[in-house]
């Protein structure tokens, strides 16, 4: 199973890039994984929030394959503990899922078409974080979940 991490927005912030890359490379010890950054539309400043989300949705959905298991990050989604996330990832692997895609939407969230395509809506927290911080938290939590699956010492209960 491959883990595809997708984020809409700017490239990784230089101050956080090393940490995001570190955790992302650690994930690769367990599953093939990589990041894809979908840039915001060039005319974003001239678009309404609705039109911006529709334009981003077109770019997002073009990257999602029919058989992908799409996990959408949204503060209104279901919260998981690190152990529950590990179980969630293991269940996808057990189902022979070829690719799990975890999506961080744009600044205003995602269009309804993306929500409808999502197989699961996950919340990291009821708090709202800057996108760059979410990337780091996501990479760390996926790595933590993988280490839990292997019963390694990284995660302490």
Can you describe this structure?
- This protein has 157 residues and is α/β, with parallel strands linked by helices.
- It has a single domain, classed as 3-Layer(aba) Sandwich (Alpha/beta knot).
- The protein is built from five helices and five strands, in the order E-H-E-H-E-H-E-H-E-H.
- It has helices at residues 14-27, 49-63, 82-94, 112-117, 131-149; strands at residues 2-8, 33-38, 69-79, 99-104, 120-123.
- Strands 2-1-4-3-5 form a five-stranded parallel beta sheet.
- Helix 1 runs parallel beside helix 5 and helix 3 packs across helix 5 (131-149).
Layout of helices and strands:
Elements: E1 2-8, H1 14-27, E2 33-38, H2 49-63, E3 69-79, H3 82-94, E4 99-104, H4 112-117, E5 120-123, H5 131-149
Full CATH superfamily name = SPOUT methyltransferase, trefoil knot domain
Order of helices and strands: EHEHEHEHEH
Strand order of the largest sheet: 2-1-4-3-5
Class from secondary-structure proportions: alpha/beta
Low-confidence parts, pLDDT < 50 over ≥5 residues?
none
Helix content: 40-55%
Q: Kindly provide the name of the CATH class.
A: Alpha Beta
Spatial extent as radius of gyration: 15 Å
Termini separation (Å)?
A: 27 Å
Summed up, the helix count is 5
The tally of structural domains comes to 1
Largest sheet: 5 strands, parallel
Average pLDDT reading:
95
Provide the CATH architecture: 3-Layer(aba) Sandwich
Shape: globular
CATH topology: Alpha/beta knot
How much of the residues is beta strand, in percent?
Answer: 15-25%
- Strand count: 5
